């Protein structure tokens, strides 16, 4: 199975909650590719807002609510889905999607597909560029994920392995760099990628699912239960369960992914922060999947 930077989709690990110091979160500089440093105080007599003092963006997008698109897909609808070699009846099931790699600019770089083996024994993971994966109508009228390839090409594809571990506060991340691919071995199909998408600060999409979301004033906003992906391969929003008690009376709202930041606490544990207050998020209209 994958040694994921944060979470695996087949062996889901919840994010560790942030440690609290006296007076609030002890937040170190943000991880590469996510978040920003707090800016210097402006040369103005106007008092700084809470967001400005924290170095965050005004939550204008958050307050605008969510606009549903019929092309949107939830990550939970993609995970575990089989991938076929074609839409024809002869199309072979090559494996299932167990990870989605998201870049810092909210684009989906790749999906990780588990192939081979029997009951998980002898199985291994390969990364396929998301742009080479197609969602098409099959011969029987159902929809399926398609990656045009052959069993022989998959046999030669290098295994996907996360090479990066979460850096300690104040330290930089280290990676082994891309793994070269022999494209001559696969002339008739898109190259199976193993360029280790996390080299550029990318994260596993399932790092978000199950994570506790915090506000700019260190309040717990809710739990992220799902991620919305557009038809062009970008992460649009996350679905956050807010309100209620022990799951009773909770409701779901959609929060733009661009308003989230991945941070580290003093112990190196990762957590998510939204550039808004808890009240602003709870006031959003309820998310209604179509």
TrEMBL record:
Signal peptide residues on this chain, from the entry's feature table: 1-21
Keywords: Signal
Domain spans labelled PRC-barrel: 73-139, 202-279
Stretches for region Disordered: 26-49
SUPFAM superfamilies hit by this protein: PRC-barrel domain
UniProt superkingdom: Bacteria
Biased composition (Polar residues): 37-47
Record's protein name: PRC-barrel domain containing protein
Species annotation: Arsenicitalea aurantiaca
């Amino acid at each position: 199975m994958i040694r994921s930077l944060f979470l695996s989709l087949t062996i889901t690990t919840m994010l560790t909650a942030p440690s609290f110091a006296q007076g609030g979160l002890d937040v170190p500089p943000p991880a590469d590719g996510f978040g920003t440093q707090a800016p210097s105080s402006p040369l103005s007599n106007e008092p700084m807002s809470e967001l400005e003092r924290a170095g965050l963006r005004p939550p204008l997008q958050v307050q605008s609510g969510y606009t549903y698109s019929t092309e949107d897909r939830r990550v939970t609808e993609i995970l575990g889905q089989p991938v076929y070699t074609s839409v024809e009846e002869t199309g072979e099931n090559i494996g299932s999607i167990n990870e989605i790699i998201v870049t810092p600019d909210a684009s989906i770089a790749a999906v990780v597909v588990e192939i081979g083996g029997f009951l998980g024994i002898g199985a291994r993971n390969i990364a396929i560029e998301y742009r080479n994966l197609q969602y098409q109508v099959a011969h029987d009228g159902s929809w399926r994920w398609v990656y045009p390839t052959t069993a022989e090409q998959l046999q030669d594809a290098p295994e996907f392995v996360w090479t990066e571990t979460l850096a300690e506060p104040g330290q930089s991340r280290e990676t082994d760099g891309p793994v070269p691919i022999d494209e001559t071995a696969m002339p008739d199909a898109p190259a199976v990628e193993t360029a280790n998408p996390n080299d550029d600060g990318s994260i596993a999409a399932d790092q978000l699912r199950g994570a506790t979301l915090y506000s700019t004033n260190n309040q717990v906003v809710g739990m992220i239960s799902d991620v919305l992906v557009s038809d062009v391969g970008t992460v649009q929003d996350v679905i956050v369960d807010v309100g209620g008690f022990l799951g009773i009376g909770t409701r779901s709202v959609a929060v733009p992914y661009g308003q989230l930041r991945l941070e580290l606490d003093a112990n190196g544990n990762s957590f998510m922060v939204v550039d808004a207050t808890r009240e602003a998020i709870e006031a959003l209209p309820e998310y209604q999947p179509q």
